Amino acid sequence: MISQLAVQGAQMLSVLLLAPLLIGFVRKVKARLVRRQGPSLIQPYRDLVRLMRKEVVLADNASWLFRVTPYLIFAATWVAAALVPTFATGLEFSWTADLIVIVALLGSARFFQALAGMDVGTSFGGLGASREVMIASLAEPAMLLIVFSLALLAGATQLSTVAAFMGSPEVGLRVSLGMSLIALVMVAIAENARIPVDNPATHLELTMVHEAMILEYSGRHLAMIELATFLKLLLYMSLIACVFLPWGLDGASAGPKALAIGAAAYLCKLAVLAILLAVFETAVAKMRVFRVPDFLGAALMLALLGTLLLFVSRSL
Amino acid sequence: MNSTVALLLCGPAALLATAVMAAGASRLAAATRLVYGATLAISAVLLATAASHLAGNPGEASATLPLGLPWTGARFRLDGLSAFFLVVVNLGGTITSLYGLGYGRHESQPHRVLPFYPAFLAGMNLVVLANDAFSFLLSWEFMSLASWALVMAHHRDEANRRAGYIYLVMASFGTMALLLAFGLLAGPAGTYAFDAMRTAHPDRFAAGAVLVLMLLGAGSKAGLVPLHAWLPLAHPAAPSHVSALMSGIMTKVAIYGFIRVVFDLLGEPAWWLGVAVLLIGGVTAVLGILHALMEKDLKRLLAYSTIENIGVIFASLGLALAFKANGMPSAAALAFTAALFHVLNHSFFKSLLFFGAGAVLSATGERDMEKLGGLIHRLPVTSFVFLIGCVSISALPPFNGFASEWLVFQAILRSPELPQWGLKVIVPAVGGMLALSAALAAACFVKAFGITFLGRARSAAVERAHEVDRWSLAAMVVLAAFCLLAGILPGLVIDSLSTVTLPLVGERMPVQMAQPWLSIVPIAESRSSYNGLLVFAFITISASLAAFFIHRFASHALRRGIAWGCGFPDAVPAAQYTAVSFAQPIRRVFGGFAFRSRETVDMPAPGALEPARLKVEMHDVAWEIFYQPITGAIDFATERLNHLQFLTIRRYLTLVFLYLVILLLVLALWP
Amino acid sequence: MNGLTFDIAHLLAGSLVLISFMMLYQDRLFALINVFALHAVVLALSVAWQAYIQDAHHLYITAAIALVFKAIVIPVGLHRIIQRLGIHRDIETAVGIGPTMLAGIGLVTLSMVLMLRVTPEADPLAREDLAFALSIILLGLLVMVTRRNAVSQVVGFMSLENGLVLAATGAKGMPLVVEISVAFSILIAFIVIGVFLFRIRERFDSVDIGALDDYRGERR
Amino acid sequence: MTGFSFDAVAAILFIPAGAAAILAAMPNYKMTALVNVIASLLTLLAALSLFVTDRPAPGQYLLVDDLNIVFIVLNTFVGFTTSVFSASYIAHELETGRLTAPNLRFYHAMYQIMMFGMNLAFVSNNIGLMWVAVELATLTTVLMVGIYRTHEALEAAWKYFILGSVGIALALFGTILVYMAAQPVVGEGTNAMVWSVLIEKAAHFDPALLSVAFIFLLLGYGTKVGLAPLHAWLPDAHAEGPTPISAVLSGLLLNVALYAVLRFKLLLAASPQAIGPGPLMVTMGLTSLIFAAFMLYRRRDIKRLFAYSSIEHMGIIVFAFGMGGPLANFAGLLHMVMHSLTKSAIFFAVGHIAQVKGTQKISEIRGLTESHPGLGWALVIGVVAIAGLPPLGIFMSEFLVVSSTFARHPWLAIPLVFGLLIAFGALLLRLTGLAFGEPRGGMAPVEASYVPMYSHLALVFAAGIYLPAPLVAWFQHVAGILG
């Protein structure tokens, strides 16, 4: 019991600490890929600390909602991230929320972010919010359909069970799984506002989505939101990792050795995924905002196809 | 005659008495307070009775009055289902009356609202209690009639008159469909008592016909696409608290009618009946919420979102039917419980949202979101509870909307065990539709709240606005509390629903309140589980932790300044995103097939001074496909036949003569 | 009954049908009225004959009524009206004579077919009479339908009544009630028609219903 | 001891006849109106006494049985309320000078003669006598329709008269044919016309003759029932006559003709080889229903609108009786009673409306619930009732007709429901215009009393909620008679 709580706590802290590092790593790799030195790995930590120290400049029109939102976003994302098995499955609190809940938690984070974007009443906030909800309205169903197909396969929406099942030998190579993987990756890219859907580095009004929503934020609020976005990326990577690369995962009740192995495996997976992401982002160009629906529509179709295939194949 | 039923029947009687009294005294100053006070008390009593029956013994009690259809009598019956819906109805009634105590004072035409409001409540109560076809239809149509009168309350407005007209015509269309359905169930002998119908099982064809007729009848009242056309017109036309009743409660009464006939009277369904309900439900959900997204009138937006929720409920009812038909009672129980749970939740947050809209309306006199904005500064409490309503209806944890939708998804995940291929293919597709509609709902209510309450004021009306009276606030706060409670303690609701599901689908969901930490586990913990309470706790704890740490260890300095906006000079409020522009990206994506929408931009030549114009053309497809042809046909027929009014006497004689000759010929050729 | 009486009754009834046909192809008002007078006379004869062979003396009254009112009073009255209204040289058939005659023939056959389905047990005389009466009624209606002019419609209507009288008298031992009611209805009919003609005379410049037709219920 | 024995039937007949004679002689119109009311009231009481006094045995001319008591009581009741309404209405007409005192004498005398005719038609046991009575009633109404002497009124009366007298002729021929059919079996003389005798022996009548007879009777009396396509006189007669007469026409005269049709339907039903009356009546009923439903849409005159709705409802009733069977017949009877009460109430309301607004044009009447709440809401209730919405009486009958029909012959229920919906749409459309919106037209208050109107509506409402057991039993018995 105690040990499990400890593991749970360790997990919560570790995701919190790892998230900036992951971002730093991605940025570093991207910089190297274009032959630049790039900022140091721990630059994101520095940024966060700096932002926290700064005072907050609040627009005259900003309401209480605007000031509460950053903490809500952070909390929702953190809770979600804490429930995804990273280096061990079967965490103490994993049963409080299954995959659907995790998706929904991210959804509520987005909900409030969009509202905050509209609160100050500048045109950019609205622009960002409306684009964000458009993207979400396609990404969320796709994500849910992916959840469906996983759940149908593993017979559960409980992440630990799913992970355990995917680790077990009985799951062979399946077309539908491939489809779900591709769809999941596409959704992850969209959700984390990465190229080609959005560009986290841009401040060009016409193209930005996520940045437009948080345009009015500054100081500690901005820090919270940034941290939340870092966590989100980590969350999706660990999700892909624990579902599609479930090796080295073990129950939280297992001994410290197993856990150590799990942690090591986890770090490797993260590194691999981060490198892949960086390579992908440097390889492709950002697409026009109204190409995004097609991109996500494809994801949606893939996910649906995967689910249908499963339904049909299970009956054979 | 059972005492509980007797008590429950006294309620509507008292309500009707109130209505009569109100008709007499409606012009008195104190009338408003008297009437709403009376309805509040009566509904509260009814609520208590029904709730205790639901919580206590799940037994059935019935009573027969020597009224209505002579040789059948007016039969009434109280069982789990009707008790549950009585709770829904009277909870709505109680809180709406509470709201009305304050809101009713702003009413310009009290004598056109007060008499019909209690009658409307009485009608809904009686529908739920009725136990024979005649009293059912009588109460059903009485309910429509009362609500029609309420829609016509502000009759000087042409739009309202049109709304009322379309509403009542559709309502009587629905009644006719129900009438035919009951005709089939009753058989030539005319056994109109539900007890008799229960025992007599119609053949497959008749069962199919009944289901279709019920979809037409109950569906037209509940607002299934394409029978929804009246709903977004009529619901907003009524005074806001009545809109809340119509949207939040009356649609549920329609669902009750559907359940009563299809699950209770019809006996064992065929699986393809479920398919029809599923598909219609899914389509309704998606189209309803898309329409809502395009709306810029706050109350119409809410009305359309009602259509979406009705779609969700029907989809999960269809799922329950399919499971029931395939002898999977546990799965059926899951789907059925999900549907009922959503019924309850929707009655909470939709009433809450309409109350909020009413508050905005009475504070600013505006329903058009394009003229609102920044109300969060003027109406702090209203905006807070409205926000809770938005979060709940957007199915976000830890609020109640999510809990029920989560159950629906869990039910969908049971579908691979279904034997039929049709269902195998359709169910996940419908699941996708529901997921889509859920996401769109979130978008829709970001828009609803963001445009109305956030940003800067778009009209002078907003500056003058100030917080509404305490009665209204109390009603809204109570509902918000319910939304949260039902969200974090779903197990409580699910367990109390077991007495409803057991007799209808022959199984109940496992007991939830026994679960550790009050989490809900529909099938097995290894499979799926959700704990609203803990999620709520985690979020609050971690949020406050973060806030605490930062304010403790980092800066908490704060400076007010003008908005940054990428360095643009402070623009006029008109430069903000409007409701229409907010919906534009989604319209680009879905409008093509949902509304056959087309955008035309005429850009003046460079240097020309006239403004560029963006014209958006959208079609209400359902209206154009189903309604316009009918009206056109009627128009044509009347035009043609009308000539018969203008014949000469000789021609009329010719008609008589020809008719005589024809009849004689028939006779001559008679074998 | 012996053949002769039967034949005479038959002859009279048949000639009534014939005269109805004559009415069909009259297109002058005066001629039409004269033919109707003839119709009435023959009717009177046949009724009288019926009275004789059934020795039902009350039928003589009916015969007298027919003779006096229909053969004399009404034709004269109609002549008056026509002269006063100055519509005596109207050509006023709505449908061509030819088609009308064809229709008439069709109607007579129809009534024959109908009545011959009646079981032969029924009194043959009654059967034949009924067949003729039915055809006279239908022909009367046909006149009303094919004429535009109020007067000729009245005439058509009365020839229809003649058919009724024929039927009634043909029915053996039909109580007096009926004859009286027939006469009474004709009387009422005539009075009211007269009243109306006069009113109409005051209102419009002719009895021609065409003038009435400018108003048809609701003005468009 | 041989004391005075009260003969209700005689009273029903002689009170109106006597009153007519008196009224014809009375100069003062106020008195005449009063006498008219009193006479009608006495007739009503006499009719009610039929329940308590023992019925006379069916004679050669008169008959009282369960079937016609329904009609008699309804007839005298509506006759009474209408006379009350007419008193105030006529007074107003006199003020506005549309009618003169001599007109009124004539009017009231005619009113009583008409009541006499209708009562006679109901109690007559002799098909010849019934025919005479129906025609008497018809001709009196013809004269009353023409009473305003206006262009339109004379038009309507003329049309009514011509079509009516053709109907008369057809009905008479039908009657003769029935006699011819009966004569070989029953023997010559009056007996062959006594209904109660005929119905016993009908099985042996010549079916072919009976069939032809029924066709003529159906058309002859059907003209007065106002079944399409024989209806042409009805809308104009309703629209142009004095409103009390419109009320009586819709509420009563149509029932008289319907009653005649029913009697002969029974006769025909008793003879197996003859054509079934059911299909004919069902067809005519549906035709009238759907035709009238469509005609409702383009009406501009408020009285003509409700006249067409009478055609529609007669269609429903004839349909119900054509369907036959206990449920449908019960529904038919109930519907007939409810329609008489509701429609006359509506015409009372329309009369007041036309007088305060000074027009019958629908387009010129708006927002009645605002300008004249009492009147406006009465109209709303009336139209809601006539459109077949609960909790009013017609809903019950429509409920029974539709559901039982659908259970027995689904394909007949579809057109029925179709017609009902079309009619509903039209009525509600007009109602929305009349009762709601910005008030338009005269604002003067109504000085006449609403009592007749609201008493009818109250009855209709009560019947919609609760039918007393004896009434039900009795209706069921009658429905049984109707087979």
Automatic annotation (TrEMBL), chain B:
Positions of transmembrane segments: 81-101, 113-130, 136-153, 165-185, 205-230, 242-263, 269-294, 301-323, 343-363, 375-396, 425-450, 471-494, 530-550, 652-670
Biological-process GO terms, alphabetical: ATP synthesis coupled electron transport
Entry membrane topology: Multi-pass membrane protein
Keyword line: Cell membrane, Membrane, Oxidoreductase, Signal, Transmembrane, Transmembrane helix
NADH:quinone oxidoreductase/Mrp antiporter transmembrane domain boundaries: 130-415
Gene Ontology MF annotations: NADH dehydrogenase (ubiquinone) activity; oxidoreductase activity
Keyword Isomerase annotated: no
Intracellular or extracellular location(s): Cell membrane; Membrane
Keyword Metal-binding annotated: no
Cellular component, GO annotation: plasma membrane
Signal peptide: 1-22
InterPro entries referenced in this protein's UniProt entry, alphabetically: ComplexI-like_HydComp, NADH_UbQ_OxRdtase, ND/Mrp_TM
Coiled-coil regions, chain positions: none
Protein name in the entry: Hydrogenase 4 subunit B
Organism annotation: Mesorhizobium atlanticum
Automatic annotation (TrEMBL), chain C:
Segments passing through the bilayer: 6-25, 32-53, 59-82, 94-118, 130-147, 154-171, 177-198
One GO cellular component, as annotated: plasma membrane
Cell compartment(s), UniProt: Cell membrane
Keyword Cell membrane: yes
Stretches of the chain forming a coiled coil according to its record: none
Keywords for the protein's UniProt record, in alphabetical order: Cell membrane, Membrane, Transmembrane, Transmembrane helix
Protein name: Hydrogenase-4 component E
Organism expressing this protein natively: Mesorhizobium atlanticum
Automatic annotation (TrEMBL), chain D:
Membrane topology, record value: Multi-pass membrane protein
PANTHER family found in the cross-reference section: HYDROGENASE-4 COMPONENT F (PTHR42682:SF5)
Pfam families assigned to the protein according to its UniProt record, in alphabetical order: Proton_antipo_M
Alphabetized InterPro entries for the sequence: ComplexI-like_HydComp (IPR052175), NADH_UbQ_OxRdtase (IPR003918), ND/Mrp_TM (IPR001750)
CC annotations in GO: plasma membrane
Entry's localization field: Cell membrane; Membrane
Species, as recorded: Mesorhizobium atlanticum
GO BP terms in the entry: ATP synthesis coupled electron transport
Keyword Metal-binding on entry: no
Domain of life: Bacteria
Any coiled-coil regions, as ranges: none
Segments crossing the lipid bilayer: 6-26, 33-52, 72-92, 104-123, 129-148, 160-182, 243-262, 274-296, 316-338, 375-400, 412-433, 453-475
Predominant cellular place of this UniProt entry's protein: membrane
GO molecular function: NADH dehydrogenase (ubiquinone) activity; oxidoreductase activity
Domain NADH:quinone oxidoreductase/Mrp antiporter transmembrane: 124-420
UniProt KW keywords: Cell membrane, Membrane, Oxidoreductase, Transmembrane, Transmembrane helix
Protein's name in the database: Hydrogenase 4 subunit F
